[in-house]
Amino acid sequence: MVGVTQDYFPFGFGKHRCPGRFPAANELKTMLAYILVSHDVKFEGRVSRPTSIHWDLNVIADPTVRVMFRKRTCN
């Protein structure tokens, strides 16, 4: 996520790349880890992962699929 290549550059490229990309990437990973540890996550009405949409060179998630979150309870 923090590597700067011409294939993937959400934080810029070359000498103009974002100096805050390292803490930003760590913050995103921390938030994702918190969600996965403290919530049950599933797709509404599906057993398997929905098919991705291929548009030009992009691969995106199906925007019509709903994701459901339920906070886990401690026993």
UniProtKB/TrEMBL annotation:
Signal peptide region: none
UniProt-listed InterPro entries: Cyt_P450, Cyt_P450_CS, Cyt_P450_E_grp-IV, Cyt_P450_sf
GO MF annotation terms: heme binding; iron ion binding; monooxygenase activity; oxidoreductase activity, acting on paired donors, with incorporation or reduction of molecular oxygen
Highest taxon in the source lineage: Eukaryota
Keywords for this protein: Heme, Iron, Metal-binding, Monooxygenase, Oxidoreductase
Listed SUPFAM superfamilies: Cytochrome P450
PANTHER family named among the record's database cross-references: CYTOCHROME P450 (PTHR46206)
Protein name: Cytochrome P450
